[in-house]
Amino acid sequence: MAKISEFRGLRPIKDHVSRVAVLPYDVVSVEEASRIADGNDICFFHVTKPEIGFIGKERDDHELYRYGKDHLTDMIEKGIMIQDTAPCFYLYTQVMEGREQTGLIACVSIDDYQNKIIKKHELTREDKERERTTHTDVINANTGQVFLFYKDTEEKRALLAGAMAIKPEYDFTTDDGVRQIVRIIEDRAIIESLKEAFRDAVLYIADGHHRAAAAVKVGEQRRRENPGYVGSEEFNRFMAVLFPHSQLKILAYNRVVRDLNGMSKEEFLGALSKAFSIEKSHLEIPASVHSYCMYIDSDWYLLKPRFKPGDDPMMSLDVRIVQEKILAPILGIEDPRRDPRIDFVGGTGSITELKRRVDSGEFAVAFSLYATGIEQLMGVSDMDGIMPPKSTWFEPKLLSGILVHLLG
Fold it and tell me: In terms of Cα–Cα distance, which of 308, 367, 325, 320 is closest to 342?
């Protein structure tokens, strides 16, 4: 079912990889990216987040994306980035707090995305998809991997275990304490075995919905511009990293709301009590599914449904229950993808950040959720369902800049 393929990766020379590689463009602000890149002209934020070159300046979109394109070209011309002479697979290992995950960096087919062999679980925002499509088209490259996963099997596990014997090309630790290891798979027998092993696989998007949608849009556009395309052109595929589901850990993606929709605290709690039992608690993180921790006015409360959530993979998701029983009917947040009254806080340290935001008075109430399970994500994806936005947070984040897939 799934078609994966090797590619000639563009990547930093070993001595410079730690100065080039950065977090994904969408998990840091422009200001933070600018601070990180300050004084480092080979920092990959110059490519993935070219806005950093225009802080406080007038610019148009053409200038913005040309800035990123010129930086990538400059790094190639200076020998900072080199392209492998033969198509390869790459093995990417991350070690965070003693937990290890190893994925295969390869190209996947835009047709598999269109035919739902690559399954998504979130809707994209039109403005963000448009921005990343233009970025991909002008830069003429996939500058970051789409984070995919697959159902683990003994065959794939054995093949990847064999490839782990390859000497690492990169092995360094980023400032957040995550060890990053990349191996280059050049052996044709291993490459062909891996391609064959994934033919029966369904691939699930863990993170990078906008990157995937943008890559497909660029591929479709170039097919229209090149009606004689044969399918082997680089724009027919995009770069991804494929992890076994058994190695991944999903962290909670919590919610924080600016106001109580015109209600007093007492009125809000009264409205909430119709669907949930409410009691003060010392818990800051729920101990199980279908329970929710709420922080308001310096106190934590434990909420439990008075109704039966049911077994439907999509409707029983905690993120959906919070949206449909609290955020929409009580707090008036009908479209969490666009409503400026809500924000989302995920990952390690999120509880401290939730409390800080509420205690500062900027927000009125926060909800700490039990993390969505990987099996839940697959269940929703298998039925072509769509989760509410910001349902999952994966750590560690994949680095951009360690590999680039050129589209032409």
Answer: 367
